Structure formats: structure tokens, C-alpha cells
UniProtKB/TrEMBL annotation:
Cofactor: [3Fe-4S] cluster
Pfam families documented for this protein: Fer4_13
Annotated GO MF terms: 3 iron, 4 sulfur cluster binding; metal ion binding
Record keywords: 3Fe-4S, Electron transport, Iron, Iron-sulfur, Metal-binding, Transport
Annotated InterPro entries: Fe-S_cluster_ET
Record-given protein name: Ferredoxin
Length: 50
């Protein structure tokens, strides 16, 4: 879900593993990243400082 919700920040490799494309996305990606964290079915994502 994260790669679909915030494709400028997340991608999937050939094995289906999610990778980040940037360590600190810009402010324009904040809403998409927050949504991706909420939608993550595995609960594997967390916002720093949260």
C-alpha cells in the first residue's frame, strides 16, 4: 500500500520488499507519507518522533 500511496517515497523491489527512495521526504510528501503509514497492513511503518 505504501508504494501505491506515496510512490515518490516508497517502491518495491523484485522480491516485493518495500524500500524507501529517500530518507527524508520533503514537506510536499507529508500527507501521502502519513496516509501510507496508516494504511500499512503489516504496521511496519512508523513516523519518526511518533
Amino acid at each position: 500500500m505504501c508504494a501505491l500511496t506515496a510512490p515518490e517515497v516508497f517502491d518495491q523491489d523484485d522480491d516485493g520488499i518495500v524500500v524507501t527512495l529517500t530518507e527524508q521526504p520533503g514537506p510536499e510528501a507529508t500527507d501521502a507519507v502519513r496516509e501510507a503509514v496508516q494504511l500499512c497492513p503489516a504496521g511496519a511503518l512508523k513516523l519518526a518522533g511518533s
